[in-house]
Amino acid sequence: MKKKIALGLFFTAGIVAALAGCGNQPAETGAPEETEIPIESPEEEVTLESGTVELTMWSEAANFDLLNTMIENFKAEHAGEVDLKVNLVENADANIRENVLNDVHNAPDIFVMVDDQLTDLVGGGALHPVENQEEVKQANLEDAVAAASVGDTLYAYPMTADNGYFLYYDKKYLSDVDVQTLDGILTVAAANEKKFTMDWSSGWYLYAFFGGTGLDFGINEDGITNYCNWNATEGDVKGVDIAQAMLTIGAHPGFKNCLDAEFLEGVKNGSVIAGVSGVWNAVEIQQAWGKDYGAVKLPTYTCEGKQIQMSSFKGYKMLGVNYYSKQKGWALKLADYLTNEENQKLRLEVRNQGPSNKNVASSELVGSIPAIQAVIAQAEYGKLQRVGNSYWDPFMDFGEMMAAGNLKGMELQEVMDMLVAGITASTVQ
Asked: Are residues 39 and 149 in the same domain?
């Protein structure tokens, strides 16, 4: 017979408009454009069943070994209570929103998600609120808690505070002075017949050229559409100034526009000596470069004769529990365990993943890991990603034009006007 233990969770949900956006990387497609959660959800008692319980969890495959270790420890702690089986299934974190909301009733019990996906998932009724709200809020950084919350309700378990990007570089070629400016990096790369890489097909990375210019961008109060003046024709930095700077960079012999996987391949084969990426590549890059491995904030770049600090989107990762899980009691308990202080420390040690837990974030270990220090340094120039769906596709086209140096017969101002028109377009049919 199955025994049920009451956890006693009750909650009420408010109305929320959905936001859309990115993660490790950017979540750029597939989100519903407007969703709501009901004013009230029925009171519910969450239970823990004994006997055999099976859960499914989605995660990126790179984390499977570490997750299996954590899961086995959890099973050992609860060996007398439940015969737990956890099936890990590979799924890109950036695709969670689309894949869950496409079939929420058959989605996994637990999934890794990026903070910009939260409101869509809450609005689609896919997330069960955290059971031990106050305990989790007290254990984690304030910004990480805010990123996992809608209003005062915590809807996911904060796990990492490192979902941003920065500069990796090979100290065998580049000095501390060289990496302060993109000009310096490109000059050294070209002189050594090597490359600096960045993904210009993604608006997540391309925000780096716009965020520090003084021009304005963000999501409107409707939570769906964007405002943007990146095509400005007046001011210290104009839209065409940024575009011209990018054209100059794109044509430099030391630059290569490529995806994250190609960057990592170039690091391993020696053709790449610097690139923009995130902590998910830290372990493999350190293995490739050894004692010459370096990581710092993004450099400045030359725009209209000025040095402008490159910006970034910053974000958080968390664990969500499916509202429709048939074993939500154990799913909530496991998600809480996988994101606790002990396991956030383990993630930091094994995968160099930056913690959201306050105690781990303030530990000496954090200060000894270059990638985490780079995330922290870059955060000063970062913005929490909150963008509408219409942001992504226009930026992909723009980035590819800049990298190829092919304006398709248009003037630069026309290119910038087209970019802004696309970013600010309504997605409501």
From this structure: yes
Q: Which helix (H) or strand (E) holds 196?
A: strand 195-198
In a shared domain, residues 215 and 158: no
Low-confidence stretches of the chain (pLDDT < 70) are 1-45, 428-429
CA angle 316, 320, 325 (to 5 degrees): 175
Phi/psi for 167 (5° steps) reads -105, 125
Instruction: Supply the pLDDT for residue 45.
Output: 67
Which domain covers residue 326, as residue numbers? 4-163+315-356
H helices, E strands: number in the chain: 17, 20
Closest CA to 396 of 222, 220, 200: 200
CB 330 within 8 A of CB 133: no
How far apart are the two ends of the chain, measured CA to CA in Å? 52
Within this chain, do residues 159 and 170 fall inside the same structural domain, yes or no? Answer: no
The whole-number pLDDT of residue 65 equals 97
Tell me whether residue 205 is in a domain. yes
If asked whether residues 34 and 110 sit together in one domain, one would say: yes
Q: Are 300 and 379 in contact (CB under 8 A)?
A: no
**94 within 8 A of 31, measured Cβ to Cβ:** no
At 353, give phi and psi (nearest 5°): -95, 125
Candidates 200, 201, 170; CA nearest to 185 is: 170
In a domain, 362, yes or no: no
Question: From CA 262, how far away is CA 277, in angstroms rounded?
Answer: 11
Residues 352 and 241 placed together within one structural domain of the fold: no
Instruction: Report pLDDT digits (tens) over 274-285.
Output: 999 999 899 999
CB atoms within 10 A of CB 324: 14
Give the C-alpha separation, 369 to 354, whole Å.
9
The residue out of 336, 356, 376 marking a domain boundary is 356
Total of domains in the chain: 2
Q: How far is CA 168 from the centre of its chain?
A: 17
Contact predicate 390/226, CB 8 Å: yes
DSSP state of 25: B
Q: Which residues of 190-229 are buried (b: 16+ CB within 10 A; e: fewer)?
A: eeeebbbbbbbbbbbbbbbbbbbbebebebeeebbbbebe
DSSP code per residue over 246-292: HHHHHT-TTEEE--HHHHHHHHHHTSEEEEEE-GGGHHHHHHHHGGG
